[in-house]
Amino acid sequence: MTAQDQALRERETSEEGPDGAAGPDGRDPFDRDALPAPKGATGALLRSLLAPRRARVALAALLLLLQQAAVQAGPLLVAYAIDRAVPALRQGDHGPVVAVAVGYGLCALGAGLFQYGFVEASARVNQDVLLDLRGRIFRHAQALSVDFHERYTSGRLISRSTTDVESLRELLSEGLQELVNVVLSFASISLILLWLDWGVGAVAVASFVPLYLLVRRYRRRASAAFSARSTAIAAVIVKFAETMNGIRPVRAFRRERSNDEAFGALNRHHERRNGDAILEMARYVVGSRLVANTAVAGMVLWGAYRVAEGTLALGVLAAAVLYMRRLYDPIDRLGMFLNAYESAAASLEKIAGLLAQRPTVPEPAVSRELPRRPARAPGREVVFEGVRFAYRTGGEVLPRFDLAIPAGQTVAVVGSTGAGKSTLAKLLARFYDPSEGRVLLDGVDLRDLSASELRRGVVMVTQEAFLFSGTVAENIAVGRPDATREEIEHAAKAIGAHDFIAALPDGYDTDVRKRGGRISAGQRQLVAFARALLADPGVLILDEATSSLDVPGERAVQRAMDTVLHGRTAVVIAHRLSTVEIADRVLVMERGRIVEDGPPERLIAGEGRFAGLHRAWRESLVG
User: Fold this and answer.
1) CA distance 433 to 391
2) Which of 1, 67, 143, 523 is most exposed, with minimal Cβ within 10 Å?
3) Distance between CA 206 and CA 211 in Å, rounded?
4) How many structural domains comprise the chain?
């Protein structure tokens, strides 16, 4: 056992209870960011998924009921054949035997046809439900605010929409049929046995008591086991996705062995949790078979004495034994249903917890529109009015912040790490809402704008220009999906990206592959600028847009910035002071406050912090 695995094992035993299922707070230590579902949310989710499909559900239930009726008629025909048809046959009457044979054949045919109809109807319901559920998860995850995605990993979202949905598929496609079969079998067989003979029926019903206690115990223990298993596989997926997404730094820093050890520890944790679930299933199967065999043996022994005494017909005893076997044969399958049910219940609870999350940046109840901007208007006015802001996990980032940016002005924001520069940009882009105060765009509070209206007014270009899988043209068109090909190419030419795009194998139709890995960082940034230019926002935010580029790439992007910033209000978050040269105004931030504010030339000529930063930057260029 490696040191990391040992540490992980110690963590498990210290944070979990005596049974290894949960920590002191009742939660698995591998799922500390779990989203508990509100009371009743799981049932409400399942009902909402099935409600639009009531007719098909009812049809499936009817077909299954008819199938069970055809199946359960078999032992009655056997009893009739033994007690009536065979004696009639001895007297030369072939009618009852023929009737039994024909009836048995029709029941078998009917059972097969009804089963086929049920499978087809239920399969359509299952696929519709799963399609609906995956769509809900995807749409809801996109609608949740940025702060949710910063604390809830993408690997867990993948687990919710894959392994958890798959657990529900197993329940709907196989488990529910087994449950209905068992319930109908218990009800119909009990009534038939009571009708055939009160004593035989009473013995059968009495045997249900230990079985009920066994099922109850299994459900209680299996629920915790399957919840822990669902959490453990989610942790495995998270680690796998994290490693594959960061494969470059993994290889660069030789993290393969340590990642392998960490993944192995999570994998072994999942193995243990999966083993717990399998062990509970094994205990249930052994117990149920013991109850079943004991009940059938008791029925045969007691029934044989009654047949010998003449108080019970042989055919009734034969039918009773057949019914008892039919009653207890599905018990193992009931265990499979409970297995699927507990797994699906744990998964559905996690999905319900996810879908219960509400955006912290909600859409306004009544949205407003931004004032119409003339074609040649110089951007939009931005005002931060008494803004305070604190992240959930830390202290106050902006203690009180007031700022006015006139329309058409380019403002560069500089400062040390943690000064609040990126927070300012995120508030302006409305990735977050202020704890207090307002952010105004042309006098309109951002909270009163719908998401689509806000994105038409404000666009953000980040340090890592994210490109989607698809063509270059499709990535530029993200800025305005209804743009024509000519408009896309015009935006690329204006930015200075046309030449490198035209040199690609398929030009604008070249697939950039995962995250734009087919082109360089500078080229990805140019595509992002073309996207922003095509969107034509009144306010553009550049969050350290050149910090990760080499000198040639930075120069190309700076030339593009001159074009994309023209006629717009711009907020440029800058680490490299070369970016500041294009600004009309510089803000120096420290601890969430503006400590210097003015044109770059005046601040450079002074003796303040920006002047010192600028001198150090110039000296680094000379060196």
Assistant:
1) 10
2) 1
3) 10
4) 2
* Angle made by CA atoms 551, 556, 562, in degrees to the nearest 5: 125
Q: Could you give the maximum distance between any two Cα atoms of the chain, in Å?
A: 125
Task: Dump pLDDT digits (tens) for 389-422.
Answer: 988 776 788 988 999 999 999 999 998 888 888 8
173-177 contacts at long range (C-beta below 8 A, 24 or more positions apart): 173/122, 173/123, 173/126, 174/336, 174/337, 174/340, 175/336, 175/337, 175/339, 175/340, 175/341, 175/344, 176/122, 176/337, 177/64, 177/118, 177/122
pLDDT digits (tens, 9 = 90+) for 262-290: 888 888 888 888 888 778 878 887 888 88
In this predicted structure, which of 139-153, 199-213, 242-256, 311-325 has the lowest mean pLDDT? Answer: 242-256
Single pTM value for the model: 0.67
Residue 380 near residue 538, CB atoms below 8 Å: yes
CA–CA–CA angle 200, 180, 134 (5° rounding): 165
Query: What are the structure tokens assigned to 256, written together?
Result: 């393969």
Mean predicted confidence (pLDDT) in 360-378: 82
Q: What value does the mean pLDDT take over residues 238-244?
A: 80
CATH of the domain at 318: 1.20.1560.10
CA angle centred on 151, ends 468 and 395, rounded to 5°: 125
Using the 8-state DSSP alphabet, how is residue 443 labeled? T
The tokens for 2 are 């490696």
Q: Is the pLDDT of residue 1 over 70?
A: no
Alpha-carbon gap, residue 617 to 619, rounded angstroms:
5
Query: Is residue 361 a part of any domain in this protein?
Result: no
* Coil, helix or strand at residue 92: coil
The two structure tokens encoding residue 26: 């009742």
581 in a structural domain:
yes
In the predicted model, what is the mean pLDDT of residues 542-571? 72
Distance (Å) of CA 552 to CA 521, 559, 621: 11, 11, 15
**Does 390 map to a domain?**
yes
Q: Are 334 and 401 within one domain?
A: no
Q: Which pLDDT band, with edges at 50, 70 and 90, does 489 fall under?
A: very high
299 and 397 housed in the same domain: no
Q: What is the DSSP letter of 581?
A: G
Residue 377 domain-assigned (yes or no): no
Only one residue has tokens 């580029």, namely: 549
Domain residues for 537?
382-622
Question: Do 136 and 190 fall into the same domain?
Answer: yes
410-415 and 382-390 beta bridge pairing: unpaired
Specify whether 522 is located in the same domain as 602.
Answer: yes
CA 19 distance to own-chain centroid? 29
Could you tell me the two tokens for 302? Answer: 């007691």
Q: Which helix (H) or strand (E) holds 382?
A: strand 382-390
Burial of 198 (C-beta count, 10 Å sphere; 0-12/13-18/19+): exposed
Question: Domain boundary at 337, 355, 373, which?
Answer: 355
Element containing residue 441 per DSSP (H, E): strand 436-441
